[in-house]
Every structure is written in C-alpha cells, then in structure tokens.
C-alpha cells in the first residue's frame, strides 16, 4: 500500500488514456460522484438539498484551472455570479469559494480585481459571502494583498484561507485578525519546499492548533476546515475550556469525505459547512482526492486492472 504514493498516483492519473477511462467508465463514475456534485449547476443544487436538510450549510466551488485569456476569466465570473444568485433563489445561504487563477490572476492583478469586484457586488445584492481559496505559495502574498484591498470595500462579503504548513501564517493571521477578516484555516494542499513550509505532519498539526486557538480567541467567525479527528477534538476541547459557543465558529469538510463525521458534529450542535465542487473540469480535483487516501487508490487500481 505504501508504494501508492501521492506523486506516483498523480503521475499515473495525468496519462490521457487514464483520464479517458475515468470519464467513460460507468463503475468508476460512482467514485467520481462521491467527490464531485455533478457537471452542471442544476445538478449541484439538487445534490446540496439533502445536505441542507441534514442541518449543514454549503459553499459551492466551480471547478477549473488557471485561465489563459480574459474571455475565459469573464466566463468564470458569469458562472459564479449565476451560482450566487441561484443559491439565493433556491433558499440556500449564498456562499461560494473561488480561485483567483481562474479569475485571470496570471494575466495581471487588475483582471482578477475587476472579476472579484463583479462577483462581490453580486454577493452583496443577496447577502452572500465569497471565500478566496489559497493556492500555491508563489501566490500567497499577492492573494492576501488583493483580498485585503477588496475587503476594504466589501468587509462582510469576502474572506480568505490560511494554510498551517506555511511559516508565514502566524504573522498573516495577526495581520488579518487586525482587519476583522473572516478566515478559513486548513493544513495546506500543495507540495511546498522546506524554505517556506513545515514538512513534518506533526509540525503542520502543531501549527494548526496554535493558529486555531488564536482564531477562536480573537478571529471573526473562523472556519476550521479539516477532516482530522485529532484536530477536531482539539478545537472542541479548546472552545469548551474557553467558553466559546458553537455559534462563534464553524467546521468545514469536503463533499464526500468523512460524511458520518460531518453528521456527528451536527448531532453535537456544531456548525458544519460542506465544500461542494461541481463542473466539467472535475478530473484534477478528483485525482487529488484519490491520491489522499490509499484505500481510494486501491479501489481505482482494481477497476483499471479489471
Ligand atoms: P488529513 O489529510 O490528515 O486527513 C485526516 C483524515 O481525514 C484522514 O485520515 C482520513 O480519514 C480522512 N480523509 C482525508 N482525505 C480523505 C479522502 N480524500 N477520502 C477519504 N477520507 C479522507 N487547501 C489549500 O491549500 N487551500 C484551500 O483553499 C483549501 N480549502 C479547503 C477547504 C475545505 C473545506 C477543506 C476541508 C480543505 C481545504 N483545503 C485547502 C485542503 C487542505 O489543505 C488539506 O489538504 C485537506 O483538508 C486534507 O487535510 P486534513 O486536515 O483533512 O487532514
């Protein structure tokens, strides 16, 4: 099992024949559907209905990669604006997660800024919220600068993400607490060098706990995004010891990951938001979820062999 390492799985997954297999095979389709809520907004809105009925909120993420033209960035803006409006119309709390590279960040900061302005305007119209996901470390400083700038005009509509594996995060958290910005705390999903990020899981976890306590103490409605049972226990324990009520923070988990743990938190009166990805560009996201867990990879290999 140990030989199915994350980079090896991601390399195999990038072979075009393997991608074609996943896109066309009926058996693996079930596994795709576990992690991705369909290819269209209509399907995604249907899939989130039972989640809402179980007492959880959601954030919708239109899957996509870095865009190369302004027209593509504009198409992403239109899709996000539609998502926010349709969530509101469907009676859901309008909440989306966006990636700046999908909004033209690589074409220049001005392109992404204009795009964010349009999306945030639409969010404000319906009382919605936009979370700017954090990407690789070459984007961190620029992402924080842009989000801070937008936050000046949209203090209630925009927030971003802090990754506990980065050394810089302790300082970033202090700076953004000072601005009263809403933050989501994650471990971090990208392969980062030792010059910028902790490499040992125990160090990443210890950093997560330090940042989480700081955010629970002084942050504005922090979102603790993790599936890690030890970190969830640490958060609940700290909140209880410090008398921090359930209404002051939320847990976040990914669609299809540890579904029973999500329900269990709701049963304990915790707030839970599920991150729900959808769209035709699901393949790279799907392979990352498979690579995270040997059991998933083994299932896929059996299908490929069969
Ligand atoms: P960890 O990876 O240690 O997992 C803990 C346990 O959860 C595992 O032992 C397993 O039981 C279960 N589990 C995890 N993944 C699974 C899977 N695919 N299938 C089945 N079980 C699984 N990152 C980033 O860099 N920028 C961002 O903006 C975001 N945004 C974001 C939003 C939300 C809502 C979540 C939950 C996560 C992110 N992330 C992210 C990803 C994050 O950085 C991290 O890579 C993953 O959450 C995995 O880390 P955990 O904290 O869950 O712990």
UniProtKB/TrEMBL annotation:
Record-linked Gene3D superfamilies: 3.20.20.220
This protein's record includes keyword Isomerase: no
Superkingdom in the source lineage: Bacteria
One of the Pfam families matching this protein, by short name: Pro_dh
Domain Proline dehydrogenase residue range list: 44-300
Keyword Oxidoreductase belongs to the record: yes
Enzyme Commission number, as recorded: 1.5.5.2
Free-text comment on the cofactor: Binds 1 FAD per subunit.
Chain segments annotated as coiled-coil in the UniProt record: none
Pathway terms, separated by semicolons: Amino-acid degradation; L-proline degradation into L-glutamate; L-glutamate from L-proline: step 1/2
Protein name per the record: proline dehydrogenase
Organismal lineage: Bacteria, Pseudomonadati, Thermomicrobiota, Thermomicrobia, Thermomicrobiales
